[in-house]
């Protein structure tokens, strides 16, 4: 069970973490490489994750955690209540731009998304919501975006997939009104929640999409791995989310033909 109290707590933790992240930008970041020179992690990613893990362990000691950094990046199943955390989504933007990054937190129960939070720290915009509760920007309830066709809307895209035309991403982009590349999954998902983008094609890990799926679900968006199978919450997968009409068009015209 999730509760009003849990929502209030998560919002408080997010504000505290965001304050810490903003102050940290006035100090020198400790940046290291993970798998390659473009895959970065900073001391702030790790410290932010540690902050949330401590809060969850103190308040919900029986819950389990899946999170991107340091020892929490695998989980054997989604049984019971599981917190899925990306402490800083868009680390490259965080390091290079000091904006266009988010904190993302999701709460799942037996594999079903219950709560989702995407916090654009530098804009102080918290997109959040819960199963059958709708989607909010800070305290304001958002309206469900229109079911726009592929040819009529902008599409968020992973730069590598677009450049290499993986899963016809270049052609799908051409069929849309245009592609946009933010370098941050959370920012792309926010653009869909606002109705600014009709979809997002990328290569994502569970913590990149867990919070977003709870919110996309409330607005009737379709999502899956790019071949149309359910997302596994286990490894990186090619990801597609779009309005129902655009999703069906992409599957029919570009993926399944
Ligand atoms: C990354 C960003 C990026 C997406 C990558 C993610 P990170 O997250 O969301 O936009 O293309 O797949 O890994 O590593 O900065 O949290
Ligand atoms: Ca990362
Ligand atoms: Ca991420
Ligand atoms: Ca991250």
TrEMBL record:
Keyword Magnesium set for record: yes
Keywords linked to the UniProt accession: Hydrolase, Magnesium, Metal-binding
Record-linked Pfam families: Inositol_P
Necessary cofactors: Mg(2+)
Keyword Hydrolase: yes
Superkingdom assignment: Bacteria
Single GO MF descriptor: metal ion binding
InterPro entries named in the record: Inositol_monophosphatase-like
Gene3D superfamilies per the UniProt record, alphabetical: 3.40.190.80, Fructose-1,6-Bisphosphatase, subunit A, domain 1 (3.30.540.10)
Signal peptide limits: none
A single BP term in Gene Ontology: signal transduction
Binding-site list for Mg(2+): 68, 86, 88-89, 208
Protein name, UniProt field: Inositol monophosphatase
Biological source species: Enterococcus caccae ATCC BAA-1240
């Amino acid at each position: 069970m999730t509760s009003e109290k849990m929502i209030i707590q998560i919002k408080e933790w997010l504000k505290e973490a965001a304050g810490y992240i903003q102050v940290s930008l006035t100090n020198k970041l400790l940046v290291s490489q993970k798998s390659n020179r473009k895959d970065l992690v900073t001391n702030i990613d790790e410290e932010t994750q540690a902050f949330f893990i401590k809060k969850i362990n103190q308040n919900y000691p029986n819950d389990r955690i899946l999170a991107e950094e340091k020892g929490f990046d695998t989980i054997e199943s989604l049984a019971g209540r599981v917190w899925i955390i990306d402490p800083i989504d868009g680390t490259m933007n965080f390091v290079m731009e000091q904006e266009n990054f988010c904190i993302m937190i999701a709460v799942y129960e037996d594999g079903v998304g219950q709560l989702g939070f995407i916090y654009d720290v530098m804009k102080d915009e918290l997109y959040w919501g819960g199963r059958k509760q709708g989607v909010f920007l800070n305290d304001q309830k958002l309206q469900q975006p229109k079911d726009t066709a592929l040819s009529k809307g902008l599409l968020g895209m992973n730069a590598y997939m677009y450049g290499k035309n993986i899963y016809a991403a270049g052609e799908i982009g051409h069929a849309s009104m245009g592609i946009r590349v933010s370098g941050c999954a959370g920012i792309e998902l926010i653009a869909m929640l606002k109705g600014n983008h009709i979809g997002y094609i990328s290569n994502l890990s569970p913590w990149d999409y867990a919070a977003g799926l709870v919110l996309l679900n409330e607005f009737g968006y379709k999502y899956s791995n790019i071949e149309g199978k359910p997302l596994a919450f286990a490894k990186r997968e090619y990801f597609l989310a779009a309005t129902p009409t655009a999703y069906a068009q992409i599957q029919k015209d570009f993926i399944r033909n």
